[in-house]
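Q: Can someone sanity-check these two? First one:
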Amino acid sequence: MISWWSRRLRQNRHLMTGPELPSHADEVPDDPSNSEPGRVARHDGLIWIDQAGKVKITNPRGRHGRYAVLAVPESDTLGVSVNGRRVVGECVVEKTDQVTVRLSVQAPETLLDVHISPDGMEATLTVTYRPGVRRILQPTVPAPRLEIRPTEVPLGSPPATLAQVQTKLASTGITVGVIPSEAIQRFLDRRESGTLVIARGIHPRRMPHFSWKLKLAIPMALWFTREV
């Protein structure tokens, strides 16, 4: 008689509390804030970013657990989709959802430009360094809510080289009057945006019984001829 009541009591307890839930300790990384490593302090669904930058999700445990929430700010440099649909704002997610995060990358640039003065007697080199930006997702601890906040990592611009400058001068047509290569290299070694007067022409002078001409470059070609 006592054993029958014991079995009945155990059955009633099972109905009230529900079946025993499997452990999720192997799915959720240890949270330093928990008193016992490997155990989850609450039964809500959890969401986090792992070491590989992937979004991981677990479902709630028990009858009253809440599903995890993914929060995505509106941004031109960030695109998040859940099961192929773009998400902006808050979205309830579960373990079977496929979360894809696309982060834009701004490539660094090094720009070279040669400007010729209106009188055609001077050429100025302009070097502009534009650093790039790479965006990454930092690992987070499991929590009921995750807001996607990429971290920006600067990308340095490649250095301008003397060969690039010489190619730019040749494409512009500047062949004479160029300052020494050593002076150009010292300017480039600074690795800073700036300008440098890279070529100068010679202004004509009055000289009796002399035919003279000046050829600085093409399209800087200036031919001055005077017969006295």
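And here is the second, same format, sequence then tokens:
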Amino acid sequence: MQSEPNALDVPDPDFPSGTWQGYYEQGGKRHPQEMKLEFAGGHVRGEGHDGIGPFTVRGSFDSSSLRVSWTKSYRWHRVRYYGLRVPDGIRGTWRLWFEEDGFHLWPGGSAEGATERAAAEASTPASTARPRRERTGAPSG
């Protein structure tokens, strides 16, 4: 007799596990980042790296609302991320103390990835459409 698949074992097409790449915006520039994320049972976890260093990711996602949030933890500090799954990836806002700005991630190998990666590596000025609160200090990521 064959059993029904466990909901935790069924991949979510909106939140595929694997490599995600993209950028976070800070100081009017885009800073590349890459991470390996596992989405399962409403939880997201993983690890990655950017110009600041290596980090881990722990958080949650909701398939019905397409919302996702996680904490990106470096050795010395943590950054909160709040996003929404959109057709070209996950877009949202990161927050650290009194500073916040935008981010964009997409699954590795996806068609839009090549264009977005090139733009991030060129440090194209970030959008100024959303208000930012800034503080001085260490880069946040």
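A (reply): Looked at the second one. The first strand starts at residue 18 and ends at 26. The mean pLDDT is 82.
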